[in-house]
Amino acid sequence: MKRLLYPMAFLLAMAGCSSPADSTVSPATSPDRGRRLAGTYEVNTIEMQAGTYPQQVIQYPILLNGKPVLSSQIKVERKAENRIDLTVSTVIDKSVFQQGAAVENISYQQEMEIQTNGNGYDLYGKGRKLARFDDNAFVVNIEEISKSGETVRMELKASRR
What we know:
Layout: H1 2-17, H2 33-37, E1 39-50, E2 56-59, E3 62-64, E4 67-80, E5 83-92, E6 106-117, E7 120-125, E8 128-134, E9 137-145, E10 151-160
């Protein structure tokens, strides 16, 4: 019985040393932002708007007969405390297209710098703010000028898998 008492007393003493505040660190005060963001996120919504055309909202994944035909994800890999590699990829189920159709999966990767902003993080790529991370969810904003001169906006919303 004494053999069990000593290990139990030790475990209880160790458990008493940690305070509840230790386990509830907010994202903004997390010591390693890169580690906090690392993981895989599923894209749930894409919002697009080009020029004067109305905004389009597409729910993801796109299903055909209950099977995902088009899905996207964001993968975050830690490079340093304040830097990550962010990869946005789209997967297309090629079985729904005719054989020989020019259908390819798309992937885009960029190194991002993490800056704390309130309770979340802003992510910068090549000096431009491109994304926001709050409550285990990403919002990626892409704005480009098309060849015709129209502004094209796209917003990807993703949550942790």
